[in-house]
Amino acid sequence: MTTPAPSSLTDLTIAEARSGLARGDFSAVELTTAHIEAMEKARSLNAFITETPGHALAEAKASDQRRKGGTVGAMEGIPIGMKDLFCTEGVLTTAGSHILDGFKPPYESTVSANLKKAGAVVVGKTNLDEFAMGSSNMTSYYGAVTNPWKRRGDASPLVPGGSSGGSAAAVAARLCLAATGTDTGGSIRQPAAFCGITGIKPTYGRCSRWGIVAFASSLDQAGPMTRSVRDAAIMLGAMAGHDPKDSTSAPMPVPDFEAALTGDIRGLRVGIPTEYRPEGLNPEIARLWDQGVAWLKDAGATPVEIGLPHTKYALATYYIIAPAEASSNLARYDGLRFGLRVPGNSLDEMYMKTRGAGFGREVRRRILIGTYALSAGYYDAYYLKAQKVRSLIARDFRTAFETVDVILTPTAPTPAFGLGDRMDDPITMYLNDVFTVPTSLAGLPGLSLPAGLSAEGLPLGLQLIGRPFDEETVLRVGGVLETAAGFRARPTFTGEA
Amino acid sequence: MSLDKATVRNIAFLARIEVPDEALEPLAAELSSIIGWIEQLQEVDTRGVEPMASVAAMSLHWRDDVVSDGAMPEKILANAPETTEGFFTVPKVVE
User: Fold this and answer.
1) Hey, is the C-beta of A132 within 8 angstroms of any chain B C-beta?
2) Which of A23, A202, A415, A419 sits at a 20 to 30 Å CA gap from B51?
3) What per-residue confidence (pLDDT) applies to B63?
4) Could you tell me if A347 lies within 8 Å of chain B, comparing CB atoms?
């Protein structure tokens, strides 16, 4: 028996690693060591805030022991990255913010606990936009993450997208086989698209939010970021499940998502929303979308033009609702119970100095917008109005799903952009999420997968949206699209930079 | 709708975020531009539309009113910047 070279170990999918581990081709310790080495060589990407090689090797050893004893979980021995928004017991958890300086949670989030129970090995905590607020990973207190992809013949660094930018970069650069993400308005799907990987935001309620640092509680959902649709199905199954500690967690059984990948979508009706083709849509993105429709048609599905008339109002709705919820959620950072404290002469002064220094610019901006939207005299005009428009957006989808089984759209309006670009005007940055935010507002499952390259050689994603709790159809169609697209391109980053 | 300096100072106080005086004016302009963009929602006819307060079409579950954890003061205080004898400490609030 020959042990594969470390580089090939980091190139496996979860499904392939699962087979290799089961056959005894390599051990969890060997697989984990290969990824720890890759992670250490890739520090220039800044994909991780905290590396946990010691923990990882101990977990890998324990995993090998369990396997010997005949116990094999769904993620047994699989090295993953954990977005640093999930509380991990005894391990620094920052949410990418200065205000959580030194915070070591005394508890474990349900999703990370589920993954560990399934045998996953956590190699480190991945970088993110501060409190998951951003679409570029530029707002992290721990610095920007560099996308492992570059434009052809152009060395300038690009953003990985956000907020799960560290997770996306780490998976694309082969530093872990998969990573967790969270998605409030596109934070799994947009970075997945920018980094050429697969990511699914499941239905709201599918994964427990307990122990995930809260941003906007009616929108936040955890999901997997992987290098194949099958891997997304495997990992989602390990993350999901009812949790009495999250009152919005759905008391529903978790289906065998992997079994949904039958490859058969004959007779399925695929909605193509006209509103997602605004004038001036990037022609490369439009072409890829048309190609996606053709692929599904070739596989026996029927494209159906649909209308989602309130789409154009989704971003403005989101930028009231998410900041309003954030302003309430982030009230807990008071300099008292955990994290940063800046002394003051009075309690108010201590609060104000701590929060003024501890929150970055984008987070302060959103807390202030949210506070304004909820303040006396403006509540009806902004917050209540946004909640009503949100109802209409959700109703658009409900109506559409009376005639179609799944919806196909682009994931993002552009490929990855330059590090530091689009920072001058917040609204320009917000427009990144124009195709992902409506799904979030409606609480629906959305999957992004890499389907092609731009002329400059950057990955482009397509998004599939499903009915509530019908991740299975989304994954099934995703599997067909993945096969048709045959996306094999690899990022330029090789670990030597 | 544009926010003036005084409004920004007030919401910054409500949010307990210190904003230096010289930053209020540029912040007011920035927030006004975002709020101005959000104004587009006013053109949507929402007469008779219920506000959507919850995503899941289900009622919240009741659980038994029992103590499920506790007796862990060390864990709870472990991350506090400052504690005294098993309590969080704050700046003096009573003269």
Assistant:
1) no
2) A202
3) 80
4) yes
Residues in B closer than 8 angstroms to A107, CB to CB, are 75
Structure confidence by residue, pLDDT tens digits, A35-74: 999 999 999 999 999 999 999 999 999 999 999 999 999 9
Question: Which token pair is A95?
Answer: 């949410």
> Do the Cβ atoms of A12 and A34 come closer than 8 Å?
no
Q: Do B44 and A389 touch (CB under 8 A)?
A: yes
Residue A83 designated active-site: yes
B81 to A365: CB separation less than 8 angstroms, yes or no = no
Which residue from A242, A223, A295, A234 is spatially nearest to A260, judged by alpha carbons? Answer: A234
Could you tell me which chain B residue has the CA closest to the CA of A386? Answer: B41
* Given A187, A208, A228, A440, the catalytic residue: A187
How far B15 CA sits from the closest chain A CA (Å)? 6
Q: Is the dihedral of CA A232, A234, A237, A239 positive or negative?
A: negative
What's the rounded Cα separation, in Å, for the pair B49 and B26?
37
Model's pTM, two decimal places? 0.97
Q: Are A389 and B50 in contact (CB < 8 Å)?
A: no
Residue A163 among the catalytic residues:
yes
Alpha helices by DSSP H, listed for A312-468, are: 314-329, 347-358, 361-374, 385-400, 426-430, 437-442
Q: For residue A201, which phi and psi values (nearest 5 degrees)?
A: -95, 115
3-state secondary structure of A293: helix
Min Cα separation A342/chain B (Å): 10
Residue A269's Cβ-side half-sphere holds a number of Cα atoms within 13 Å equal to 12
Q: What is d(CA A51, CA A127) in angstroms, rounded to the nearest whole number?
A: 11
Task: Return the axis-axis angle of helices A471-485 and A229-239, rounded to nearest 10°.
Answer: 160
Structure tokens at A237: 């199954």
Q: How far is A310 from chain B (nearest CA, A)?
A: 9
Query: From CA A414, how far away is CA A285, in angstroms rounded?
Result: 7
Q: How far apart are CA A32 and CA A80, in angstroms?
A: 9
Counting DSSP H helices and E strands in chain B, the numbers are 3, 2
How many Å apart are CA B59 and CA A173, to the nearest integer?
Answer: 43
The burial of A172, by beta-carbon neighbours within 10 Å (0-12 exposed, 13-18 middle, 19 or more buried), is given as buried
Strand partners, A139: none
Whole-number pLDDT of residue A1: 43
* Token pair in block for residue A125: 């905590």
ipTM of the complex: 0.95
Cis? peptide before A249, omega within 30° of 0:
no
Ramachandran category for residue B45: left, alpha or beta (phi over 0 → left; psi -120 to 50 → alpha): beta
Q: What is the DSSP string of A139-202?
A: T-TT-PPPPS---TT----B---SSSHHHHHHHHTTSSSEEEEEESSSTTHHHHHHHT-EEEE-
pLDDT in tens, A352-366: 999 999 999 999 999
Distance of alpha carbon A73 from alpha carbon A59, whole angstroms: 13
Distance (Å, whole) CA A28 – CA A34: 10
Contact (Cβ atoms closer than 8 angstroms) between residue A390 and residue B49: no
Residue B7 CA from chain centroid, whole number: 17
